[in-house]
């Protein structure tokens, strides 16, 4: 199929990247993807995309390159070096990095890409796997206004609330704040769940009425069934939230912002991971509260 839409390369077809790239395919974009797992490449091909054998093959003809990998080291690995994006993309291409990484990595990437004539925006997202599938993500962008404007039609296929927050790295700073709020919110919900269960009230009913008042939240709406069913299949892995708590703690220290509650929750996330729960969904913070409360987990 050939049309006037920009050709997309997608690097990183994980929990988020797979459904997001499929939303572009449904909207008529041509998507060529590369990722480390063969089953995810097969999934892209089954959805109508093209599976590439390497990053170079994926990005060579692309007008827009979207990356969605775990963290800063992976963004650097796919971007730099002879086999990386910057060496193999065409000049004038727009690189949209949607991974959640340190703001400084985004700033450095934009500077290095500019030398190759490649434009970059950082565009991390919030909304989780469900938000990715439903194309209702919040997308927080850092970079130049003109590049934001160029990216907007593509981003509108992936999300609902799309905001330019400032220069390169600003999207990541806002995402770090997002992760602080989400972790603290999950922790509060988890503590409420253990308290309510130990008190013997109907948890399902309690969470419904709580969610209708000031205590209600997207976290409670999205994670209620995880709490009720002790279903901790990810979703968003504790390993990734541990990474994000490191980013926000470090970034806040750099600007002299105190995060006392965030620091405690960062320790609880780290402890959960150290106990072997890093691969579980972040709603598994419930397990940490249960352990602290003397329950068998
Ligand atoms: P994931 O681990 O499911 O997927 C990451 C993908 O990156 C994998 O498919 C892997 O093959 C690919 N990858 C890693 N290194 C690569 C390389 N060198 N070359 C090519 N591909 C490579 O992670 P995810 O949950 O999809 O998260 C991706 C990013 O989005 C992370 O930064 C995360 O913090 C962020 N995020 C995740 C969620 C969520 O709910 N899962 C929500 C918002 C933001």
TrEMBL record:
<dbReference type="GO" id="GO:0046487">
    <property type="term" value="P:glyoxylate metabolic process"/>
</dbReference>
<dbReference type="InterPro" id="IPR006115">
    <property type="entry name" value="6PGDH_NADP-bd"/>
</dbReference>
<dbReference type="InterPro" id="IPR029154">
    <property type="entry name" value="HIBADH-like_NADP-bd"/>
</dbReference>
<dbReference type="GO" id="GO:0051287">
    <property type="term" value="F:NAD binding"/>
</dbReference>
<dbReference type="GO" id="GO:0008679">
    <property type="term" value="F:2-hydroxy-3-oxopropionate reductase activity"/>
</dbReference>
<dbReference type="Pfam" id="PF14833">
    <property type="entry name" value="NAD_binding_11"/>
</dbReference>
<feature type="domain" description="6-phosphogluconate dehydrogenase NADP-binding">
    <location>
        <begin position="7"/>
        <end position="166"/>
    </location>
</feature>
<feature type="active site">
    <location>
        <position position="175"/>
    </location>
</feature>
<dbReference type="InterPro" id="IPR008927">
    <property type="entry name" value="6-PGluconate_DH-like_C_sf"/>
</dbReference>
<keyword id="KW-0560">Oxidoreductase</keyword>
<feature type="domain" description="3-hydroxyisobutyrate dehydrogenase-like NAD-binding">
    <location>
        <begin position="169"/>
        <end position="288"/>
    </location>
</feature>
<protein>
    <submittedName>
        <fullName>2-hydroxy-3-oxopropionate reductase</fullName>
        <ecNumber>1.1.1.60</ecNumber>
    </submittedName>
</protein>
<keyword id="KW-0520">NAD</keyword>
<dbReference type="InterPro" id="IPR036291">
    <property type="entry name" value="NAD(P)-bd_dom_sf"/>
</dbReference>
<dbReference type="InterPro" id="IPR013328">
    <property type="entry name" value="6PGD_dom2"/>
</dbReference>
<dbReference type="InterPro" id="IPR015815">
    <property type="entry name" value="HIBADH-related"/>
</dbReference>
<dbReference type="GO" id="GO:0050661">
    <property type="term" value="F:NADP binding"/>
</dbReference>
<dbReference type="Pfam" id="PF03446">
    <property type="entry name" value="NAD_binding_2"/>
</dbReference>
<comment type="similarity">
    <text>Belongs to the HIBADH-related family.</text>
</comment>
<dbReference type="InterPro" id="IPR006398">
    <property type="entry name" value="Tartro_sem_red"/>
</dbReference>
């Amino acid at each position: 199929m050939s049309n006037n839409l920009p050709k997309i390369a997608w690097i990183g077809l994980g929990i988020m990247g797979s459904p997001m790239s499929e939303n572009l395919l449904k909207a008529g974009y041509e998507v060529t993807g590369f990722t480390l797992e063969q089953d995810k490449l097969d999934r892209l091909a089954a959805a109508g995309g093209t599976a590439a054998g390497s990053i170079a093959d994926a990005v060579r003809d692309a007008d827009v390159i979207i990356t969605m990998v775990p963290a800063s080291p992976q963004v650097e690995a796919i971007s730099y070096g002879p086999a990386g994006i910057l060496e193999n993309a065409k000049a004038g291409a727009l690189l949209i990095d949607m991974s959640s990484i340190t703001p400084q990595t985004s700033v450095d990437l934009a500077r290095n890409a500019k030398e190759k004539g490649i434009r970059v925006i950082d565009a991390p997202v919030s909304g989780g796997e469900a938000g990715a599938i439903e194309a209702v993500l919040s997308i927080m962008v850092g970079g130049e206004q003109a590049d934001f404007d160029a990216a907007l039609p593509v981003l509108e296929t992936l999300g609902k609330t799309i905001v330019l927050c400032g220069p390169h790295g600003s999207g990541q700073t806002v995402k770090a704040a997002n992760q602080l709020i989400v972790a603290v919110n999950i922790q509060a919900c988890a503590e409420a769940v253990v308290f309510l269960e130990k008190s013997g009230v109907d948890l399902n009913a309690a969470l419904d009425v709580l969610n209708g008042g000031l205590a209600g939240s997207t976290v409670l709406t999205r994670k209620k069934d995880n709490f009720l069913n002790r279903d901790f299949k990810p979703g968003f892995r504790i390993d990734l939230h541990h990474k994000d708590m490191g980013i926000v703690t470090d970034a806040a220290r750099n600007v002299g912002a105190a995060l006392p509650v965030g620091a405690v929750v960062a320790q609880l996330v780290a402890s959960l991971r150290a106990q072997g729960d890093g691969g579980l969904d972040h709603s598994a913070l419930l397990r940490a509260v249960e352990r602290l409360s003397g329950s068998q987990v």
